[in-house]
Every structure is written in C-alpha cells, then in structure tokens.
C-alpha cells in the first residue's frame, strides 16, 4: 500500500511540473491514494481524465484573471477621465475660463468682416499733392456725370493688368457687394454723387491721369459695380508710374476679393507689395485675403507686417485678434473632442474585453462537474461573478446540487459597468451637444471660410425663359428645302455627352485644383500621379442608378473626348493623368464641398471612358449634394444612361433634374433629345427651344441642329388618316382614335389631331380637321 501511495505521489509531482499549477491549491490525495481536485476548484471537471481539456481549463482561468485586472484598471482610468469632464461643467463657462478675452469679445468674433474694404487714394504719398486731383472748380449745372473709364482710351490687353486671370477675362460677369466702407478713404464730407461727377470731369481734362482713374475705380467699388471698377483700375495700372503702381494694384486686388475671387486677388496683392513693400495697407488687404482662403498662418504674418509698418492700424489689430481667438478656441474644442473620442474608444474596448470574459467564464462553468458541494466550487470565482449578475440556488433532494444562472448577453456589461457612471455619460452627452453648437456657430462665422458653399451667384440667377425673336421661333422654320436634304433626314439621334458643371451653381472650380492645393495653374503636379478613384458606395440609389445601368457600364471603355475641354480648362497644358491627381489632392485636402470634387472625379472617368468608376463618384455626389443643386449629378447620370440606351431611365432622371431647376439649358436640351429618341416630337421641340432661348449657341450649335432635325422629322412623320382609320398620332406617339373615327365619320382631306400639354404629350383632346400648310397649334 505504501509503495502504491508513493507511486501516486511521484506521478502527481510530475503532473504538477507539466501543467505548472499549484497542487496544494487544486489537488488533494485521498486516504485511498486517489488524486482528485478540491471541491471549490474550477478543475472539478466532468472529464477528469481528459488532459487537453484540463490544460484548456487552466488557460481559461489565467485569461479570466488577466481580463479581470485589465477591466478594473481601465475602469479606474475611465472614472478619472469622466471626473475631469464633470469638472468642466457648462461648456460656455469652460470656454469663458479658458479663453476669457475671446469670449468676452464674442461680438467682434462674429461680426468682423474679412471682406472689409481696403484702398487708398494715394494722397499721402510723397510727390502727390491735392492740386494733382483737379477736383475744384467743377461746374455743377444739375447734370451729374459718371466716370466711364472705357471711353477714356481703349485697353484690350496689357501685360501689367493680369489678363491671364480667369476673373479678369470674365470681368463682365463679375458681381460684388457695395463697398460703402471705402468712403472713409475719401476726403471727409465727400458727397458720393458729386464725387463721381468731379471724377468724370477730371478724366475729361486728363484721360490718362492714374489718380483719377484709381479714384473712379474706388467710386465704382462703392457703387458695387465690379466691371466698371476693374476697367478703371486696369487703366490706372497702365498709366501709373512705377513708384505708384501699387496703389491701383491694391484697388484691383480689392475688387477681385469683393467679387469672391480671393485666390486671384492674392496674386495681384503680392504684386502690389513687390512694388511697395513698406505700405501697410497692402499687407492688411493681403491678410484679409489669406483669412478668407483659410491660410491663417500667412494671414497673421501679413497683419504683423502691417502693424510693424503702422503700429496704430486698428483694423489689423482686430483682425489678428480674431484669427488668434479662432485658433485658440478651435484647439480647445479639438482637444475636448479628442478626450471624448478617447473615452468612447476605451468604453468600446472595455465592452469587448468583458464580452470575452463572459464567454470564458461560461465555458469554465460548463466544463465543471455538478456536485452537491458546488457552493464551495463557486468560492474561487465568487469575487468576479458577484459583479456580473450571477445568481445561485441550492437545490435539496436526492440530487442536491447548486444551480447557477449567469447572464450571457453583452447588455449585462453595459448595465453593470456603467450603472455608477450613468450621470457622467449624460454629462458627456451634454458636453458633446454644447461642442456641436459651438462648432456650428463657428463654422458659419466669417472667420472660418471653407469653399463648401458657392462663392458667386449661379450662372442663370433669377433668369426667366421668354420667347425670343430668333429665327427658330418662326413657325415656318426651317423651310421645306432644308428638311428635304438627305443629310438632315438621316437619323441624327446620335449621342452627345452632357455634363452640367458645378460652376453653373456659383462654384469657382478651377481654384480647387490649383491655388487651394498650393499649385500654380501652369505648374506640373509632383509625381506620382494617381487617378481620383471614388469609394464604391454601400448601395446605389436605384431610382437613378439602376442595377441595369451598373451592369451595362461594367468593363466598358468608351472615352467621351468631347468633354475633355472641361478638364483641360482647369489646368494649363496638363495631361488627363495629372488633372486626375490634382482632383485627388483636392479631395484628400478637403478644400471644397465633397460633392463638387466628386463631380470633377466623375468627369475625369467619363473622359477616360470608365463609366463604372464615374457612377461611383456620381453616387458619392448624390449623397452629399444640397437638394437645390441635385440636378448637377442627375444630368450626368441621365447622360450616361442615354449613352447605354436606357432611355426610359434617362428620361426619369432628367425629369427630376428639371423639377429642381427648369432653367438650365443643358438639362432642357438633354430632355429634348431623349423625347426625340422616343419619337415625342412636340415635347422635344418644346424643350430644345427652351434651351436655345437661354443659350442660342448651346453645344456649339448642336442644339439648333437638333431642333431643325426634330421639326423636320415631325413634319415627315405627320400621319394622315383617311376614312376608316382607327389610330391617331400625337407627339410622335400612336393612340387609339375616338369612337366616331371607327364609325368612318371623317370627311375627305381631314386628319385627326390630338393636343397635349406640350411636355409629356398626354392627349387632352382629339378632333378631326383639315390640314393646311400653316402650322397647327393646340390649345
């Protein structure tokens, strides 16, 4: 018996060395020499002879204990972090305590205008005297003249006037606000109406006086007339001596800035500083421009330069204060957001650990043997299990045993872990709401300009379509000889790609892929170049991008080269690949509204012939575009649908685009071409005419060609029905005729006409009538 017991002890020592556990903790040897686990051990298992199961049980126990320590340590950290947030209290009070000077000057932060006017009449400059202005002795006979600089001398082009800038080339279409703040730069008590009269007479005396031309530009800026202001400023630049040329350049930069061409204004103002680096007004104006462009570091540098030159300049002091406050508040709010994000991340990690912990404990309990002494067995895990909602009950009887129920869902974690910090989490929610409100208020302030909104008026702002006096409005146009040309009567329903640019909505697209990404229009983007791939959306809006369209575009490569000019106009002498990289850089830098950049990316893929990629970008644009501009991506989607022969899909999409904006000529043209494809000639004529009434030269004359073709087809397809006919045609579509036609009531020479609403061409009324050469109009 002793030998047998000794053998068991040797075996037990070897087993202890193998599994690395404490024998005195888990195992005992009975009087009979039998080795068995203690009653309160997790190793009291259903299969005591299963060594792998035993080893797994030990592994589970070790992980459970490690997770328990980890969870408790993290909870302590979370408690301390939330305690810090609780100490913040009301966000407004916290901001007040952390940035007292900024919050107490909130009105300045909200009201300061970085479009504030800056100019000078040059009267303070050495060598300029009041006699040079010649404003005295001007006759006032009741007829007030205005300065018209265009009549002073012709100036179509000059190398000094930055004609390469798009704003300068497009100056006839520029608009700006009235800069009444410029009056303070004029002599005290100046009457603006009289002042314009004086300048006009001054220019009559000396049409090349740069002083008068510059004053005339200031006059038109006060009036809010960007075009006339630029015409005067251009001539002032050309006529000004080199030592004074910075003054009209400052005026020109101010005009472009007020017209929302701030990036181009920066170029002009840099030139002004090059001419006169010691003039503080130029640095002040450039600081305002960089503030609007969002380059706050350069803006601050400009204000510092201005204050070094003129320490008393109050506007520079206020502008610098506003920028610094915004940076300080933004940093404080960003830090607070990061703290919140860290807490949320920790909570998610805590939940993940706790879920794993529950699964392991359930497995441990599952592997344990049920015995009447199970109450002792719970002793080891008791401290842990007591925190997770375990309830145990001793059952009496022949099979007396301990029954334990353990919650096994993840909600138990959230309930138990957060019960003592529920108030703190509510405080977190309150803080986040406060942060969101502050961020919303700051994002709409003038000091945080991002190009998320249009910076100019839409191309067809307040436009009303009216019948024109052009030839195509004539009911006899085109004449029959044109319709009989074989080349015209051939089916001309060929596909013409249509792209509605965000520029039509007031976005200055070219600066997004140039100045705002730190690139010059004529400078090549650094290699490598990557295409602007849009992330494939989780789902497509099947109302506009149908599964059939997705399938049709898969793997197709058919470049739409006619749209290339839209891209090449963005950057000079650039390849398609480089422009694609510029779009990608702008997208990653988030320099503009995401939907606008998605539209540029879709255009890139259409030119490249990759329509499946284009649809990814168009869906991305649909997801973020404001409702008022939704017609922009819809038109591109409809055009692609037309290309792949899905005319009904294209019609439905274009109709929605027309509902949003019925003025856009490209949308009307597209709808007209689609109706033509459906042989709905009357509807096609209506919409193509609408497009031509807005833009007579639309698509380089192709719209006019389509209208001529549709009218000729309409005439050639006009169907006469004799006695016994039982069908009529309206808008190129055949309908069943009225009952009386079936009764052969038609007289000789009569035909049946149905008239509709001119758009959908649903027949409203049908009747028989004799046809003449004159065009028949419906009610």
Brief summary:
The chain is built from 32 helices and eight strands.
Topology at a glance:
Elements: H1 2-19, H2 23-26, E1 27-29, E2 35-37, H3 51-88, H4 91-98, H5 100-104, H6 106-111, H7 166-169, H8 192-205, H9 210-223, H10 226-239, H11 246-258, H12 262-275, H13 280-292, H14 296-309, H15 314-367, H16 374-377, H17 382-385, E3 391-395, E4 401-405, H18 411-418, H19 422-443, H20 480-483, H21 486-489, H22 547-553, H23 564-568, H24 576-589, H25 594-608, H26 611-624, H27 631-643, H28 647-660, H29 665-677, H30 681-694, H31 702-716, E5 727-730, E6 733-736, H32 739-742, E7 750-755, E8 765-770
Antiparallel strand pairs: 1-2, 3-4, 5-6, 7-8
Helix pairs in contact: 3-15, 3-19, 8-9, 9-10, 9-11, 10-11, 11-12, 11-13, 12-13, 13-14, 13-15, 14-15, 15-19, 24-25, 25-26, 26-27, 27-28, 27-29, 28-29, 29-30, 30-31
Coiled coil: 421-448
Protein name: Tetratricopeptide repeat protein 17
InterPro entries: TPR-like_helical_dom_sf, TPR_rpt, TTC17
Give a written overview of the molecule.
This protein has 779 residues and is mainly alpha-helical. The chain is built from 32 helices and eight strands. The strands form four sheets. A two-stranded antiparallel sheet has the order 1-2. A two-stranded antiparallel ribbon has the order 3-4. The protein has a two-stranded antiparallel ribbon with strand order 5-6. A hairpin with a 2-residue loop joins strand 5 and strand 6. Helix 9 packs parallel to helix 11, helix 14 (296-309) packs antiparallel against helix 15 and helix 28 (647-660) runs antiparallel to helix 29 (665-677). The relative contact order is 0.06. This is Tetratricopeptide repeat protein 17.
């Amino acid at each position: 018996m002793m030998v047998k017991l000794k053998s068991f002890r040797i075996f037990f020592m070897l087993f202890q060395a193998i599994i690395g556990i404490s024998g005195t903790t888990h195992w005992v040897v009975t009087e009979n020499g039998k080795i068995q686990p203690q009653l309160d051990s997790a190793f009291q298992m259903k299969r005591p002879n299963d060594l792998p199961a035993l080893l797994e049980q030990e592994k589970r126990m070790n992980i459970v204990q490690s997770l328990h320590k980890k969870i408790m340590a993290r909870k302590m950290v979370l408690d301390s972090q939330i305690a810090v947030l609780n100490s913040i209290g009301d966000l407004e009070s916290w901001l007040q305590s952390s940035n007292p000077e900024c919050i107490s000057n909130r009105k300045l932060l909200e009201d300061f205008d970085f479009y504030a006017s800056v100019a000078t009449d040059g009267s303070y400059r050495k060598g300029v005297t009041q006699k040079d202005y010649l404003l005295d002795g001007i006759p006032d006979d009741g007829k007030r003249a205005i300065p018209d600089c265009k009549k002073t001398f012709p100036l179509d082009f000059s190398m000094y006037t930055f004609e390469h800038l798009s704003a300068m080339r497009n100056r006839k279409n520029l608009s700006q606000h009235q800069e009444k703040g410029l009056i303070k730069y004029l002599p005290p008590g100046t009457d603006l109406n009289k002042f314009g009269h004086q300048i006009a007479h001054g220019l009559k005396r000396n049409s090349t006086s740069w002083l008068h031309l510059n004053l005339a530009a200031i006059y038109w800026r006060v009036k809010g007339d960007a075009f006339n202001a630029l015409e005067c400023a251009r001539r002032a630049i050309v006529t000004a001596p080199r030592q004074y040329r910075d003054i009209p350049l400052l005026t020109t930069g101010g005009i472009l800035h007020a017209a929302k061409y701030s990036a181009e204004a920066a170029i002009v103002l840099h030139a002004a500083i090059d001419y006169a680096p010691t003039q503080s007004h130029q640095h002040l104006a450039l600081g305002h421009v960089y503030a609007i462009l969002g380059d706050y570091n350069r803006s601050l540098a400009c204000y510092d330069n201005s204050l070094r030159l003129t320490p008393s300049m109050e506007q520079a002091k206020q502008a610098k204060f506003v920028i610094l406050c915004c940076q300080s508040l933004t940093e404080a709010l960003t830090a607070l957001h990061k703290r919140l994000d860290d807490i949320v991340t920790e909570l998610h990690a805590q939940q993940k650990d706790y879920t794993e912990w529950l699964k392991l404990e359930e497995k441990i309990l599952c592997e344990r043997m049920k015995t009447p002494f199970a109450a002792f067995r719970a002793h080891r895990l008791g401290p842990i299990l007591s925190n997770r909602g375990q309830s145990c009950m001793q059952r009496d009887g022949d099979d007396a045993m301990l029954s334990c129920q353990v919650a096994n869902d993840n909600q138990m974690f959230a309930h138990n872990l957060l019960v003592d910090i529920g108030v703190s989490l509510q405080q977190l929610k309150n803080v986040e709401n406060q942060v969101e409100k502050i961020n919303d208020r700051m994002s709409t302030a003038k000091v945080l300009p991002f190009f998320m909104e249009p910076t100019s008026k839409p191309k067809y702002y307040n436009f009303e379509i009216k019948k024109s006096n052009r030839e195509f409005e004539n009911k006899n146009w085109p004449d029959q000889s044109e319709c009989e040309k074989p080349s015209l009567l051939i089916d001309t329903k060929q596909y013409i790609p249509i792209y509605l640019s965000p520029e039509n909505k007031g976005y200055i697209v070219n600066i997004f892929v140039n100045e705002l990404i730190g690139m010059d229009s004529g400078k090549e983007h650094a290699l490598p170049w990557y295409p602007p791939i849009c992330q494939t959306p989780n789902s497509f809006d099947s109302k506009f991008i149908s599964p059939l369209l997705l399938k049709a575009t898969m793997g197709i490569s058919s470049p739409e080269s006619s749209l290339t000019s839209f891209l090449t106009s963005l950057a000079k002498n650039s390849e398609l690949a480089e422009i694609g990289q510029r779009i990608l850089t702008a997208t990653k830098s988030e320099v503009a509204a995401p939907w606008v950049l998605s539209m540029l990316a879709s255009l890139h893929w259409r030119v490249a012939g990759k329509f499946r990629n284009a649809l990814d970008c168009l869906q991305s644009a649909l997801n973020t575009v404001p409702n008022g501009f939704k017609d922009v991506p819809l038109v591109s989607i409809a055009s692609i649908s037309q290309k792949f022969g899905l005319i009904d899909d294209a019609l439905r999409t274009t109709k929605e685009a027309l509902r949003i904006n019925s003025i856009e000529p490209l949308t009307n043209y597209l709808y007209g071409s689609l109706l033509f494809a459906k042989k709905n000639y009357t509807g096609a004529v209506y919409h193509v005419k609408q497009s031509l009434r807005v833009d007579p030269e639309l698509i380089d004359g192709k719209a006019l060609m389509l209208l001529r073709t549709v009218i000729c087809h309409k005439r050639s397809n006009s169907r006469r029905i004799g006695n016994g006919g039982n069908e009529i045609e309206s808008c190129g579509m055949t309908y069943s005729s009225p009952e009386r036609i079936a009764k052969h009531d038609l007289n000789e020479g009569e035909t049946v006409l149905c008239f509709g609403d001119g758009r959908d061409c649903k027949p409203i009324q049908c009747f028989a009538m004799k046809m003449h050469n004159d065009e028949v109009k419906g009610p």
